């Protein structure tokens, strides 16, 4: 009788248990390698410029380490831009207040702690004001977005970051400086 290369369903539980044990041992050894780029309880201040089709947003944010691999934070951003449409000049102002959470992959990917690769989600409240001459209108609403980014620390405190994201007031990309304290 020819032997199958597939796992016998009766042996599935045994192999699953072995894989789970291997996963937990690997996770423990990765965890034991030390702190990631942002330690639990540590704060990080971020500030910079964004790039998008709707002006150049300016942002400032603060992240807090709740776990060696996870941060939560908040961000405030603003952008202003002008455009002409059908002979009329429009002036736009967009302000965003958002919260975010990121998973930092440094330990998982076994990269040096001065390099921070992260991804996460954000939820924001946005206020959009538009004026044409002396007439104005506005709207506001919630936005859910995602981001992926990287940060390089030159020393224990200062770093630069580059982030790509969508569905928020800094949609597109942003570049800035980070200071952890």
Give an account of the 3D structure.
This protein has 181 residues and is mainly β. It folds into two domains: 30 residues; 144 residues, Porin (Beta Barrel), CATH 2.40.160. The protein is 11% helix and 59% strand. The chain contains one helix and eight strands, in the order H-E-E-E-E-E-E-E-E. It has an eight-stranded antiparallel barrel with strand order 1-2-3-4-5-6-7-8. A hairpin with a 2-residue loop joins strand 3 and strand 4. The longest helix has 20 residues. The radius of gyration is 23 Å and the shape is elongated. The protein starts with 11 loop residues before the first helix and ends with a strand. The N terminus is likely disordered.
Strand order, sheet with most strands: 1-2-3-4-5-6-7-8
* Low-confidence region ranges: 1-9, 24-34
Assigned CATH architecture of the largest domain: Beta Barrel
Radius of gyration, taken over Cα atoms and rounded to an integer in Å: 23 Å
Q: What coarse outline follows from CA principal-axis ratios?
A: elongated
Supply the helix-strand structural class.
Answer: mainly beta
Main CATH class of the largest domain: Mainly Beta
The biggest sheet, with number of strands, parallel, antiparallel or mixed sense and barrel status, is:
8 strands, antiparallel, barrel
Tell me what portion of residues adopts beta-strand conformation. Answer: over 45%
CATH topology of the largest domain: Porin
Oligomer: single chain
Whole-number count of domains = 2
Order of helices and strands: HEEEEEEEE
Taking the alpha carbons of the first and last residues, their distance comes to: 66 Å
In percent, how helical is the residue content?
10-25%
Number of helices: 1
Mean pLDDT: 81
